[in-house]
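[Structure tokenization] protein backbone as discrete codes
[Encoding] learned vocabulary of local backbone shapes
[Protein] chain in single-letter code, fold in tokens
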Amino acid sequence: MIIDTQKNSQFYNFGSAWERAFEFLNSLSSESEDKKYTLQGDDIFAIVMSYTTTLPKDAMLESHQNYVDIQTTLRGAEAFECFSTDKLEVTIPYDASKDAAFYKYTPHCHTRVNVFPGTFVMLYPHDAHMSGLMIDEKPEFIKKVVVKIRKELLIL
């Protein structure tokens, strides 16, 4: 997992897919339309969405095998809880059609981070994550974006 500001994205030398993702992220605003954006076919795409943040008991803990996620908010803030997949109990096995596996939530052994406009979190396949969480147990309507990059496209 990487947590940083968008202005520092140039310090990561992950290649052209990374650069393309941040060019797109930097072009968005809080008024961007909620929809799927295709940046490079199925290799790089983004989803802009709006929702109200929630408690962990109402969220899903997931990981992906084929894509790396870069997530940020365009309006409002949300918390993330992140876990190493090797410390979790699988509740729904990996489904290749959804590129997702789901896990039993445990309030221990995790990292919690707040994400707001101008910051991002990058999640690797071994990073199980739960996003959309309230900060200070206060629900907030947010707009966010998830950029998905096929992991083979990144120079790691």
